[in-house]
Amino acid sequence: MEIEEFFRMDRWPNSYCPGCGNGIVMNCMYRALQDIVNLDKLVMVGGIGCSARIDGYVFSDAIHTTHGRAIGFATGIKLGNPELDVIVIGGDGDIGAIGGNHLINAARRNMDLLVICVNNWIYGMTGGQISPASPHECLSTTTPAGNPEYAFEFVKLVAECGANYAVRWSITHPVQLIKGIRTAYQKKGFRFVEVLSLCPTGFGRNNKLNEPAELYKFLKEKTYIMRDENRIAVNLDGKFPLGEFANRDRESYIESLKKIRG
Ligand code: SF4
Question: How far is the CA of 198 from the centre of ligand 1 (A)?
Answer without folding.
Answer: 8
